[in-house]
Amino acid sequence: MEAEVLSALDHQAAWSWLAVLTEGERHSIALAFFGGHTYQEVATLLALPEGTVKSRIRSGLRRLHETLVDKRGAVGATI
User: Which terminal residue of the chain, N or C, has fewer Cβ atoms less than 10 Å from its own Cβ?
Assistant: First the structure.
């Protein structure tokens, strides 16, 4: 039970962090990381070029990292 609650909190926190992303970054990252799809599969699902999806995932992850570093200070720098 405790593990389920912690997992739900982690999931909720992850979705709140995704709010800083553009819609394209958020959708691509959600499909890749939460949906378990490769970037090639995400590109097919979204009918976008693979390079576009790779760029959205990369820029989104960079933005998430910067956001977490800002919110957590030095602790976030190790993420």
Answer: N
